[in-house]
Amino acid sequence: MNWLRQQSLALQAALRQLGKQPIATLLTTLALGVAISLPSGLYLILNNLDRLAGDLPAQPEISIYLDPAIKAPERDAIGARLTHHPALASSRYVPRDQALKALGEAQNLADITAGLEQNPLPDAWVVRPTDSTADAMTALQTEFEKLPGVAQVHLDSAWAQRLQAALAIGQTTVLLLAGLLGIALVAISGNAIRALILAKRDEIEVSRLIGATDRYIRRPFLYLGALQGLLGGFAATGVLAAAGLMLRPPIAQLAALYGSQYQLRPPTLVELVIALASTTLLGWLGAWFTVARTFHQVETNR
Amino acid sequence: MISFSQVTKRYPGGLEALTEVGLNISQGELVFLTGHSGAGKSTLLKLIAAIERPTSGVVSVNGQNVGRLSRHAVPYLRRNIGLVFQDHKLLFDRNVIENVVLPLDIAGVDRREALKRARAVIDKVGLLSREKSHPIRLSGGEQQRLCIARALVSRPALLLADEPTGNLDAGYAADIMAMFRDFHRVGTTLVIATHDERAISAGGGRITHLDHGRVTAEQSAETSP
Questions:
Q1: Which DSSP state fits A122?
Q2: In a 10 Å sphere around its CB, with 0-12 CB exposed, 13-18 middle and 19+ buried, how is residue B77 labelled?
Q3: Residues 91-150 of A with CB under 8 A from B
Q4: Which of B87, B101, B102, B115 best probes binding to A when mutated, by most A CB atoms within 10 angstroms?
Q5: Is A209 on the interface with B (CB under 8 A)?
Q6: Which helix (H) or strand (E) holds A245?
Q7: Looking at the complex, does the CB of residue A11 fall below 8 Å from at least one CB of chain B?
Q8: What does the alpha-carbon distance between residue A287 and residue B3 come to, in Å, rounded to a whole number?
Q9: CB under 8 Å to A51, separation ≥6 — which residues?
């Protein structure tokens, strides 16, 4: 009970302190908010890009175009090989006439395809490997290229893989940025607390003389750091929400041009809680470091 | 209650404030520490409250060796000691009652109970009408009374006062001394460092005279001229 009372007194003191210096509180909150919004914003962007990539055929396919002058035995050999290949999940044959028809329908080029004197497309096989890693894909590509009667082998989804690779780099960047700005957060929070401790030197000295424990003196400053971190987290949420609202119409427009219903996905509740908890923790940590160092300084200067 | 045995205090820089001091103060006594400034009066009080630690010798309060208390134990010692300072050491960003309630907040006393006790002690020092004032609005004498109220609110068995009347004119000084004698009458042990002869001659208590860090004379106040 007593413990709870001491905590609530310290929390009240910290809240009073924040209210007493609204400008300083606002400035620190803004600095923290901007610092926090950078890695969190990048995280959200990557998350959305990742989802965009997920909507596309991430299952990569390989197209195998046959030589127009291919002989029947070779054609049969290739067909047999591809339908029973152990590394392939599925395979389907696309005759040139069907390909031309599909092209005409899909791209509204029926007039043009109808006007062609002869079909320029080759017969093709479209196969889907079980293992879609880059190495396995390349191995299959070289294997198929060597088959007699094959004109060309094309990896359809190479770009999706590249995007995945780029996203992986992005995720590492988010971690790095979060680490760096986490340090900045500790420093900003610590600096604000340090100024306050020096301003409250007398109060600290008097409290000690009349029987305050180290914990009693430290507690309001730690709460102050944590509160400042939490406020910074809320400020960052505000910054990102504003950015999201501004980006929504142009993204909807772009998506409409591609005939997609794509929309920005806001952070989930869990992500939000984790972000706010970490900024609170970092603010507390900054206060803790500063309190340990500055109290020592205040005492030895006396 | 308090005993000094062979206590020497040397400050960094070589100044020796106390030299082999021996002193015993029993429960309920009223002791005046006299002597010129720099004789070691303040240092003696600081050793009792563990604000300073002796270079050698033993200072004990209620059987505890104060010089060897851990940093963790010091606050609990101080909660049983009321401290009155010449420069008051009030907090100027809080009003009278908030200043007085501070020791009780620190000790974790229930807020309503704390305010009740603070009000009672403020009444005792005659500041009840100034309860909501800020210390800056109080006169020197009132500030000293506020400091005394803060020292007394946790009902300590021991009160240490360092030049409590040092900055006050005669009228205020007599007020304060009369107040201390009241506390003595109800059983509080008081140790008062002062060079104010007027205050002492009012009668009662024991005088310990310090000269250059040594106890040179002890006498009962009644026999002083």
A1: P
A2: middle
A3: none
A4: B102
A5: yes
A6: helix A214-257
A7: no
A8: 42
A9: A265
Q: What tokens were used for B75?
A: 């606050």
pLDDT of B27 reads: 92
ipTM of the complex: 0.85
**Pairing mode, if any, of strands A88-94 and B81-84?**
unpaired
Tell me the pLDDT tens digit for each residue of A235-282.
999 999 999 899 888 888 888 887 777 778 888 899 899 999 999 999
* B46 close to A (CB below 8 A): no
pTM of the model: 0.72
CA A151: distance to chain centroid?
A: 41
Q: Which among A211, A203, A208 has a CA at the least distance from the CA of B77?
A: A211
Q: What is the pLDDT of residue A56?
A: 57
CB A33 within 8 A of CB A232: yes
**Would you state the torsion angle of the CA atoms of residues A146, A147, A152, A154, taken in this order, to the nearest 10 degrees?**
-80
Q: Is the pLDDT of residue B223 over 50?
A: no
Is-contact A227 A18, C-beta < 8 A?
A: yes
Among B140, B208, B167, smallest CA distance to B4 is for B208
Cβ of residue A69 closer than 8 Å to a chain B Cβ:
no
Report the 10 Å Cβ neighbour count for A212. 23
Q: Distance (Å) from the C-alpha of residue B223 to the closest C-alpha of chain A?
A: 35
Which residues, at least 6 apart from B16, have a Cβ–Cβ distance to it below 8 Å?
A: B8, B9, B10, B213
Predicted local confidence at residue A57, as pLDDT:
52
CB contact under 8 A, B89 and A207: no
Whether the CB-CB separation of A188 and A175 falls below 8 Å is answered with no
Partners of residue B93 in chain A, C-beta under 8 Å: 203
